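worker-03 picked up job from queue 'complexes'. Input manifest follows; two sequence lines, order preserved.
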Amino acid sequence: MLLLSEKDIKKSLSMEEAINVIEEAFLKYANNDFVMPARTFSKVKDEDTLLIMPCFVDDCIGLKVVTSYPSNNTTNNPVTQGLVLLNNRETGDPLAIINGSVLTAIKTAAVSGVAMRFFMKEAETVGLIGTGLQGMYQLLAAVSSTSVKTIYIFNRSSEKTEKFIQEFRTISKSDIEIIPVLDKTELVRNSQIIITTTTSVSPVLPEISGLYENKLIVGVGSYKSNMRELPQTLFEDLDYYYIDSEQGKKECGDIIDPLKRGWVKENQIVLLSDLLKGGLKAPQNTNPIVFKTVSMALFDAYIGNYVFKKAKELGIGQEFKL
Amino acid sequence: MLLLSEKDIKKSLSMEEAINVIEEAFLKYANNDFVMPARTFSKVKDEDTLLIMPCFVDDCIGLKVVTSYPSNNTTNNPVTQGLVLLNNRETGDPLAIINGSVLTAIKTAAVSGVAMRFFMKEAETVGLIGTGLQGMYQLLAAVSSTSVKTIYIFNRSSEKTEKFIQEFRTISKSDIEIIPVLDKTELVRNSQIIITTTTSVSPVLPEISGLYENKLIVGVGSYKSNMRELPQTLFEDLDYYYIDSEQGKKECGDIIDPLKRGWVKENQIVLLSDLLKGGLKAPQNTNPIVFKTVSMALFDAYIGNYVFKKAKELGIGQEFKL
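worker-03 finished. Artifact:
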């Protein structure tokens, strides 16, 4: 069995590669070429949960096991921790154990990368609301999928902001300009792409009509049914609402709520995978484009299988005789 | 994170210890001192399935992930393969990955060991039907929980029998007499305890009235709803039908069928955990005693947590920085 740590994953996989791999996974999804049993959420205590997400795709059984512990926000422990397990689909053989926290972060960013590349790869300005670990990876995905030259980040704590910027420079090895702003409206005005990665229960973007013209909004956070990041205004001039997984209609407040309130109609919700499969072009008018990702086990299994094979080929990782 | 292989488990845990640990787990069950979310079975192909069994007990989240591939019967791959994962219940931290196949084999045998010790620890003769890996571990449990001096095993292939006996001698380091028999009635007549560990869909014990007087029957195999090991005769003079888990009434053919056909009444089915908790004595009349184990995630989590702590204490296992 092969063990892949955070370092091993980073050595095996570039963000650009991850975006290409996830684009392949989108096509698997569009072609229904996978089996994805229901994922289960088990309450451990209060809001702390154990998530179990299986998927069978190609030659592997992928299983993501993640603990999501909001109670860790008050300690030094990460909120999300976990593993991705791979087994041979043909024989059941355990093949690999992969750091699930890092793989999840890279995968989630790569999903956004696919969307940014598809909808607005010429964008030169990107705004970010939510400067946690996921925000960092989202910026790396923006670097790999667009022509970004200036990044605007929203953050109240200047100390945290400084640390975030330094870390981004180290990881991305880029000298892209990063400008912290304290006003979200300014951030949106200056950015062609706006990414939100918060766990907010109420909209984190301004309710200003016309503000979002010609822009791409990528909603990454607020993945639960009681959470919301996107404002009502956004839906006023929307042609379509792009999402990555059918499951989102049942699980995600940013999709459930707009549907329930009639801001968006069921037939306006379009799977990005179907656009990719159809070889379609991104819309060309000035209406805002909104993409929301809720992700799914298929992505984790697919990219896990890819990293496993790549690492094996490169001789990366630690062997363990079970 | 600590990784525990087959060898590490065997170094950390004796069968006698395993029996004591599982007896503790029975008391946890009786006291309802655990949380056990529903286990899920996902079909991979035909009869090949992925089993996911979570349980929260004491300070750990235990998760057993096992593939059960009957299709491997035609190849050299084991039918059951898997892992037990442990996370810190308080923080979500991944703590350990343990060889799930070996831990399952030991645990299943230890469950029988608890029953044999409780119902008939003075037994000097044990008969076994089903000489696979599980049969081997059952005999080791019998050695640790009874006064067994002679073992009768039923097997048609003398070559396989010879190999099985040699292996038992090596592992058990005992010179207990083992006698292969070709007649099941003879096996039952000669044995005070009879253990069945098959995947049969029809009874593997003879339908002879009075044959089971004064005997303890331990049913370990045929864990699915369409499987059956135990004969109707067995239920004729039964006081109680002892089982290890409520879940068995829904999942196990050897419990479902006798209930449905009226051979046994719902109120005759008794949890072994309740006897242990109540400090009760084993029945003293001559009627057969029947114990059927279907097991549950609680046992895996509990013994997994024990092995993890013991191995850590002894410095056994391989550390892995995730």
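worker-03 released lock.
The domain at 2-103+298-319 of chain B is CATH 3.30.1780.10 (ornithine cyclodeaminase, domain 1).
Chain B has a mean pLDDT of 95.
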